[in-house]
Amino acid sequence: MYQRMAILIAAAMVTVRIVQSCGVPAVRPFKRPVKELTNRIVNGWEAKPHSLPWMVSILVTYGQKFLTCSGFLIENGMKNETDILLTASHCLHIAGKFQAPGKIFLVLGAHNLDHFDDTIPRRARNYVTHFYRSVAEDNDIAMVRMEKPVKFSSYVSPLCLPEGEIPDLENKKCFAAGWGRTERDLLISHSLCLLLLICSREYN
Questions:
Q1: Which residues pair with 120 in a beta bridge?
Q2: Which residues pair with 57 in a beta bridge?
Q3: I want to staple 109 with a disulfide (CB 3.0 to 4.6 A). Which of 70, 76, 134, 155 is the partner?
Q4: Cα separations (Å) of 193 from 49, 67, 113, 129, 175?
Q5: How many CB atoms are closer than 10 A to CB 129?
Q6: For residue 49, how many other CB atoms are within 10 A of its CB?
Q7: In degrees rounded to 5, what are phi and psi of residue 102?
Q8: CA-to-CA distance for 4 and 180, rounded, in angstroms?
Q9: Gap between the Cα atoms of 203 and 195, Å rounded
């Protein structure tokens, strides 16, 4: 099984309210590890269930294998629903080629990937990339359109995108989220995880 976690950066300051809006979860997220929890995530911790409602689990099949990645929902102009998510191009470029949209399966509203109660399955209709180069991993971004929109709820809502000029994020605290390895070469976390990172100039 070929596992990867797409690094998805979100602002560290999150406000909580019931009205659904981009970047506003109905459940307040943990911004630091909870001491009572057994924590095996390198530089991170398990997220509170449904505190990151924009996160999407992505499964791409190729041959007899599959790859898992993460993505996040964004608004597309529809009222109270969307059919667009962003992810990394390398999640869709496997074994030297981009995989067909029909091989891309999506799970929305998930926390633990061993339990799919109350989650929403979707398939990809199509996707676009932007001059991705696998060797250097330049322009490592892809926009995926789902086969049909998903309604916003407490478990499913979009993340905000910056408007206008992006501020300088070097040395600023950011969150990365996804499903992946808890420690190098050890167990795979089936629960959504958060990592606190310091943005480097390379990723700005």
A1: 108
A2: 70, 107
A3: 155
A4: 10, 18, 12, 26, 10
A5: 17
A6: 13
A7: -65, -10
A8: 6
A9: 16
Q: List, for residues 32-47, the tens digit of each pLDDT value.
A: 766 544 444 556 788 9
CB 71 within 8 Å of CB 192: no
What tokens does 185 get? 């070469």
Which pair of structure tokens corresponds to residue 68?
A: 């898992």
Which tens digit of pLDDT belongs to each residue from 94-131? Answer: 988 999 999 999 999 999 999 888 899 999 999 999 98
Q: Which amino acid is at 149?
A: P
Strand partners, 150: 82
Query: 158 with 169: CB under 8 angstroms?
Result: no
Integer distance in angstroms from the first to the last C-alpha of the chain? 31
DSSP 103: G
146, 41 Cβ separation under 8 angstroms: no
Question: Distances in Å between the alpha carbon of 131 and those of 7, 95, 97, 141?
Answer: 19, 18, 13, 9
